[in-house]
Amino acid sequence: MTIHQDSTELLAAIPRVFEGVAVTVLDGDGVARQSFGAAADGCSASVRIEVPAGAIVAAVPDGAPELVELLQALLDVLKERERLEGDMESMNDRSMSLLEQVAMYGDTLPKLSGGADDADIAQQAVAACRRAAGVRHVVYLSCQPGKDLCEVVAHCGDESSPHGLGVAPVVEVRGFLAEVLASDGEPIMRTLTRGGRMGEPDSAEHLAERDIIGVPVTYGAGDKRIVLGALLLIDKIGSAPVAGDARDDFGTWETEFASSFAAMLGAVLGARKTAALGKELSMAQTIQRQVLPDRAVAVPGFDIASSYEACGAVGGDYFEYARLADGRTLVVVADVSGHNLASGMLMVAARSTLRTLASVHGDAAALFSAMAALMHDDLQRTERFLTAAGVVLAPGNGGVDHVSAGHTELMVYRTDGDRVERVPSDGTILGFLPDVRYESRRLRLRAGDCMLLYTDGITEAVDQAGAMFGEDRLAAVFAQLARNRSAQRIVDGIVAELDSYRGGAGAADDDVTAVVIRCLVDDAGGTP
Questions:
Q1: SS3 content of the chain, % helix, strand, coil (to 5)
Q2: pLDDT tier, 443 (very low <50, low <70, confident <90, very high otherwise)
Q3: Which residue from 315, 329, 317 is spatially nearest to 367, judged by alpha carbons?
Q4: What span, in angstroms and rounded, lies between the C-alpha atoms of 368 and 371?
Q5: Is the distance from CB of 138 to CB of 156 less than 8 angstroms?
Q6: Cα separation of 202 and 168, whole Å?
Q7: Rounded CA separation 268/111 (Å)
C-alpha cells in the first residue's frame, strides 16, 4: 500500500514526539511495509485504524494510557486526510479523462462537414463517439420519410460481443427507438436487469446487455424542428457483467456527451439536407439555430429573457444557459468572428465544450480558462476568435459572479440611484493565447437591479446617416426600460428601439443578441 508523502512525514514524527511509541504501516494481508520508531519494552496497548488497502498500527508503551486517546484522535485525522487525498486524485483523473474526450470531440467536429455523403459523415461520427465515450456500440439510425421505419446508416461496435453485430439494415420504429424519436430532445437512458434484453433480436437496442442511451438527432428549432434519426450509445466498457458487482454505469457525462454529439451530427446532416433541398436557410444558419436555447432558464430569484436576431443566413452570435458542477447557473453570451460555415461550426464546438466543461467546473473563471486552452488550436487554424461574457447565478441570492473574455461591457441597472453601472471587460479574447487565467468579479445585486449581456451588433448598428447606436445610447435606453418592467419587456423594448433607430437603413450588418436578467431578491438571499 502507499501512504501519501505528507501523511508519511506525520507518521515518522510521532515516535520523535512520543517516546516509546512505534508506528507500523500494514498492507491488505497484514504484512508490515513501513515502520517508524522502536517500541519500548512492555507495549501492551495499541491504536489501529483502517486505511485503503491496509492499516496503520501505533504501539503504546505501558504506563502511558493517556497516549491511547490522543493517538487515536491523531490517526483518525490522518485517516480522513488519506480519504480526501484519494478523492482528489480520483477527481483529477476523471477531469483529465474528460478533457481528453472533449479534445477528441473537437478534433472530429471539423472533419464531419467534409464527409463525402451522409453515410460517410455518420460513420465518422459514430466511430469517434464510441472511442471518446468508451462504449461497446454506437448506432445511428435514420428515419425514412413517411414510414415507421429507420435505416441503420452507421454502426461501430465491439465484434467480441457474445451477441455479435446482428442488426437488421431496416428496423421498425417501436419500443425504445419509438420513445427516443418521440422525445423533445432529451436523452433517454435505461439500465437493464440481470439477463434482460430489449427489443427484437435484430434491433439495435437488442445489442444492449446492461445500459443504453438514446437521443434524437434533429435540426431546426420550434415548429421547424425535424427529426432525422436517433443515436444510440450501448454498454459502457468496463461495466460488470453480473448484477451486484461493482459497475461503471452510464451517468451525467455520457448523457451530456450523447446530447452534444447528436446535436453536432444533426447540425451537419441537417445543413446538407437543407442545401440539397434548396431551402432558404443555409447550412450555417441551421447549425447556429441548432445550438440556441429555445426557452429561458428558470433560476429562483431571477427573471430572465433573451432575444436573438441573425443578420442573414449566417451568424456568429450565441447564448447559453449551463448548469455548473456546484449547481449554480452560468448565463453566457458569445460572438465568433465572421459569418460563414466555419463560424457556425466553431460555435457548435464552443457550445459543446462549454456544456461539457460546466459539468466538472463550479467556477466560471476556471471554465473560461479551460475553454481557452481547448479551443485555441481550432480558432487559430480557422483564423477566428471568440469573445464571451457570462454571469453565474445562485438560486435565491443576489450575489453574482461575472467573467469576460474580451466581450462587450456588462451593463447593470441599479434601482438605488436609478442609474446604469457599466462593468468593463478586462479578459483576453479566446483564440489569442493557449494559456489564459481568467478572474471572476463579484457583483452585489438588490431586488429590482437588472443586468444586460449583449453583443456588439446592438452598439454598432447604424442609422440612415451611418451613425452608430453606441454604448451611451444603449445605457440610456436600458435605464429607462429597466424601471419596474419584466425581463421580457426590457428585451422587447431594446429590440424595438434598435429597429426604430435603424429605420430604413436596410438589413443589419451583424447579429443582435441580448439577455436581460432581473434580480428579484437581495444579495443576502432574502425577499424584498
A1: 35, 25, 35
A2: very high
A3: 329
A4: 5
A5: yes
A6: 5
A7: 11
CA-based radius of gyration for the chain: 29
First to last CA, the chain: 57
Distance separating alpha carbons of residues 139 and 233, to the nearest angstrom: 7
Q: What's residue 385's pLDDT?
A: 86
Q: Per the structure block, which three cell numbers stand in for 450?
A: 437588472
The per-residue pLDDT for 285 is 60
Burial 176-210, CB ≥16 within 10 A → b, else e: bbeebbebebebbbbebeeeeebbeeebbbbbbbb
Q: Which amino acid is located at 276 in the chain?
A: A
CB of 180 closer than 8 Å to CB of 230: yes
Confidence at residue 509, expressed as pLDDT on a 0 to 100 scale: 67
Which helix (H) or strand (E) segment holds residue 55: the answer is strand 54-60
Q: pLDDT of 495-522, one tens digit each?
A: 999 999 988 555 566 778 999 999 999 8
pLDDT digits (tens, 9 = 90+) for 168-206: 889 899 999 999 999 888 899 998 887 778 888 888 888
Side-chain-side CA neighbours of residue 498 (13 Å): 29
Give dist(CA 284, CA 423) in Å, integer. Answer: 32
Question: What is the per-residue DSSP string for 143-187?
Answer: EPTTSSEEEEEEEEE-TTSTTTT---SEEE--HHHHHHHHSSS--
